[in-house]
DNA sequence: AAACGAATCAACCGCATGTCT
DNA sequence: CAGACATGCGGTTGATTCGTT
């Protein structure tokens, strides 16, 4: 038997998120947190798969995200971490508070790689190109379409050597970025520094430029407590979620949802 | 002003990993 | 231990924006 798809793709919306969808997702996650992503779109009233919701939240809507270009310090840190960890973007992102793996990956591919090349360094090995590559014309990274294969092979190479190093790194340094990692508990932990910028950029980047009525930033600080308490009430239908909890618990029973998990 | 190519970045896809039964 | 499932991760794609001619 094959693996089940992450969601039923029939009738699900794809492509760029609208302001309305963003608003629904943010409003839902801020008031309820998330239990399992597969249920989030149903509970939030979105025609998206859970995966898509998670991605949108972690990469774009999370209130603790910084926006804008990486600072010089951040960029240096990324380069340094990349030299140690390879293409483990999530590990790198965990060290940069408010940055996402996707953002760092994009920044690496568009900016840093070029910079390193200009400096005569191989962006993969971080060694001078002459030393690491005999024939620059054969450089597979000149062709973006070959790049993926090259980098995945190379990152596999990193993978063999990086784990011990990575563990040392992880244990040695204070996890400043841990609050921004993708762990369940931290996913909705806001920081005061960036909620407004997240709101601004989210609405700015919304297709059509429509403004969104974002929640008061002060509300963001209540989310952790909400996560602890509100899923039980929403799913039992007795709490702030109102009817939605009852309806959706019924709906979700057919996907193996166990109410007791959230009680 | 229009056309074109390059650059950027949000979003998707498929696989890997972790957890539970 | 094996299978099922949910989530996370990294690579890639494609739409949009920007810069140049």
UniProtKB/TrEMBL annotation:
Keywords: DNA-binding, Nucleus, Repeat, Transcription, Transcription regulation. It comes from Triticum turgidum subsp. durum (Durum wheat). Gene3D superfamilies: Homeodomain-like. The keyword tRNA-binding does not apply. Residues 169-210 have a biased composition (Low complexity). InterPro entries: Homeodomain-like_sf, Myb_dom, Myb_TF_plants, SANT/Myb. Residues 131-214 are annotated as: Disordered. One of its GO terms (biological process) is regulation of DNA-templated transcription. This is Protein ODORANT1. It comes from the Eukaryota. GO terms for molecular function: transcription cis-regulatory region binding. GO terms for cellular component: nucleus. Residues 9-61, 62-116 form the HTH myb-type domain. The keyword Repeat applies. It is found in: Nucleus. Residues 9-61, 62-112 form the Myb-like domain.
